[in-house]
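thread from #wetlab-drylab

HS: before we spend reagent money on co-crystallization trials with zinc ion, can we at least see a predicted complex? here's what I'd submit
DV: go for it
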Amino acid sequence: MRGCHAKEMPRELEDWLALESEDWSPYYPFPGNIRQAVVGALHIAQRGLCVYCGCRLDMRRPGKSYHIEHFRPQLRFEELSTDFANLFLSCGQETRDGNVAETCGTAKDNDFNEHCHVEPEYPQCTGRFRFLLNGNAAPHEVGDMAAETMIALLNLNHGELRKDREELLFAIDAESLDITDFIDPASGLAQGYAHVACSRLDGVIPKMESTAYLVHEIGGAFPGDSERELVEDCSVIEFSSRQFPILFRERWKTTCLAKQIQGIDVNGLCAEFDKLRNAAPSRSAAGKRYFVGHDGSLQAKDPDRPSEEHLAIALWNLKKRLPRPGGGWELVLDYQFPLQGSARADRGLGKVDLLGATDQGRLVVVELKVRRARSSRGDAPVLALMEGLRYAAVVHANDRDIAAEARTRFDIEVSDEPPIVQVLGPESWWDGWRDMSASTRRAAGQWEPRFFELSARLEARLGIVIECLSLEGAELEDITWRAHGPRLGHAPKMHMIHRAEGNARDVGPATG
Ligand SMILES: [Zn+2]
């Protein structure tokens, strides 16, 4: 067991824990910025090595290639779930080849024996073990049940670990390596299995002088870290839709629609967008994928009552590059694209109707709307815009993880530009909101110019692109049911809803 040097609690975590009150308790998984700070501090304390097996940690795939390990399992020691002293970095859930890991934190899982364990404190814990020339680890003292228990619990004599150590011990004995050969002087990080070398050479990995290397060596290695500015306003620590009253406003009445849009506090809305981006949950940090492997089928849904989800799946099922009105194309990558890190903590965040990518490699967050019946118009475009903005903030915060998955799954390169927010609906949906009866129009007012003015201001302020597109040939009646799911016979055409249109159309007198 390799263990961990003395740890220094990061300021971010300390400040966050100090917010505990009667109404709020710290929780795990940590929000993004706290997690980054904790991972950074542990990485330094462990000199870049797994706390158990001592191999060099691969920091590129949170959850998979490494994870935050609770030495005393969260399930049984809930009160220690955010206790820094109980946290370490361990190998992740997958091996380099993508198989399920069989050692370290993954092997240990929720097992722990309070009466028979070795605390992962370097160098004391390494001293409890010895390494045989065949690479096997064994208790240093015969009869040390705790050391024996830890070897079994963490599967430290797994074939690959044993082989690595055997080769290392052979090299040490043959070439008389020095302890300093196991420390990278530039980064201060240790080489994998440095503790095995130390044990063989009767040395100790020196204490690290400086942590400045973090900026150079690790800064770019933690996904999302350099992009994500730390949240200065510490009041946003956990996702809750109540903290975003404009973005998550659900009720937009047709009466006085123009006035309601005009009344939106754009500064407040932009602040909410930034806040959500900073507090965005990370699925990767929770060990979950973004592309969950949808197969285009819809179980337990009535084919006779088509909905937005049917249309979303039908569009995805086309598997075609759709020409974009302004040139180029876009491809639907997935539907019902999940954003929640933890189902419990991130309730209310919802799923993206469709996630696409353009020929320029820019992600497209599609908010799809339909008119379910002739008698109803369906959701208002301004609600669709707000929903699209929510998703864009969270997608943007996680774009590196999403890009990495898209590369593996679809072999495409996705840029780190903010995503395009696309409000998309069949022509009938747009018509319902544009061609109102005279009396409805009088009540609603000329909402279109207000809506497009709002979009333009948001684009300028947030650096995003907002697109309003209609689909020709993608009405709910056009959806057929074949094999396992909804299909469209032809690829629909996308048309831009022009910004000047609201003024130009003859829609009767407006009273605002
Ligand atoms: Zn390990």
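DV: The two ends are 72 Å apart (CA to CA).
HS: ok that's useful, forwarding to the group
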